[in-house]
Design a protein that fits this description.
Layout: H1 7-38, H2 42-70, E1 74-78, E2 89-93, H3 99-108, E3 115-117, E4 119-120, H4 129-135, E5 140-141, H5 146-151, H6 158-168, E6 176-179, H7 188-194, H8 207-216, E7 222-229, H9 238-242, E8 248-256, H10 271-298
Parallel strand pairs: 1-8, 2-6, 2-7, 3-6, 4-5
Antiparallel strand pairs: 7-8
Helix pairs in contact: 1-2, 1-4, 6-8
Length: 306
């Protein structure tokens, strides 16, 4: 609708609408959560949780509104037709831009339970948005490095136990747990530094979702494996996205069964599970790399600086 405006003007309008949307809904979300804490009645708390999620879904809907207002991007999406909001999902995707999260929220909003990310504990201190994550029961995790555990062996197993406790509240109400397996955005420089065996992807880090699969047991119904392809092998910045400089987007969503023998197992302490899980993720990532190659070839794209 505003395509006649120059990109910088559209980007400025989109950014202002995003900030206004956040500033209007964040106080409502936090107030609902405080009411949930003050009145510790199970029925009341469940109602507050549902209301908070509805507020977050409204935030996503408003974001979809300004995207339609300022964007002219063509959407080529397949695989979202048979999703169910009453199911528990584990979701992963390749990661190329900060816009990926807004795009995924737009595509999956109200089709599945709201996406919840496992976050580093320090992120709760981000102004406004950290409180919103806390209000929505996003799990904040304290993860220990291998070096730290070597020096403090008594801490072994605590990160798994904290994941299990965080997941416990998800067993009674459908939820979607999201994780970027690459852990960071793809760039050709990072790919070369890693010596990644994949043409379009960084190496996956299996530990994050392995903790979730092990901790949530039989609650998870399936894995949603999402592949995002930007034209001309772009890694657009969030500002590029706001300005409408992404003219086409391809997204493929594949539902995959989670092997039953992965459930209720400890990734850190079970070597056989760790090897099997890493092999499963490597196979998924190889198939994703081949799919990205097909999508880019269909658009006439070739790898840059690879």
């Amino acid at each position: 609708m505003l395509s006649f405006l120059p990109p910088a003007a559209r980007g400025t309008i989109a950014a202002l609408l995003l900030m206004l949307n956040t500033m209007l809904l964040a106080p409502l979300l936090i107030s609902i959560t405080l009411l949930r804490i003050v009145i510790p009645l199970p029925g009341w708390q469940r109602g507050c949780t549902s209301t908070a999620i509805a507020a977050a879904e409204l935030w996503i809907t408003f974001n979809s509104g300004w995207m339609k207002l300022t964007q002219t991007m063509q959407w080529d999406v397949d695989g979202v037709e048979h999703l169910d909001k009453q199911h528990w999902y584990l979701v992963t995707s390749n990661h190329q831009s900060y816009a990926d999260i807004i795009i995924l929220q737009h595509l999956l909003n109200r089709k599945i339970p709201m996406l919840k990310f496992f976050l580093k504990q320090q992120l709760i201190w981000i102004p406004v948005i950290g409180l919103c994550w806390w209000a929505l029961d996003f799990p904040f995790m304290k993860r220990y490095s291998k070096e730290y555990l070597d020096k403090h062996p008594s801490k072994r197993g605590e990160d798994f136990e904290s994941t299990r406790r965080a997941c416990e509240k998800f067993k009674h109400t459908p939820v979607t747990v999201f994780n970027f397996l690459e852990g960071t955005r793809f760039t050709p420089a990072k790919q070369q530094l890693q010596q990644s065996p994949y043409q379009w992807l960084l190496k996956p880090k299996a530990g994050g979702i392995a903790f979730v699969v092990g901790a949530m047991g039989d609650s998870l119904n399936s894995l949603l494996d999402i592949t995002i392809a930007y034209p001309n092998h772009q890694q657009p910045s969030f500002w590029d996205f706001l300005c409408g400089r992404v003219d086409k987007l391809q997204v493929r969503v594949q539902q995959r069964d989670i092997p039953a023998h992965f459930l209720n197992r400890n990734y850190n302490e079970d070597q056989a599970f760790r090897q099997d899980f890493q092999q499963w993720i490597s196979q998924l990532w190889q198939e994703k790399d081949e799919l990205l190659e097909q999508l880019h070839q269909a658009n006439g794209n070739a790898p840059e600086n690879l």
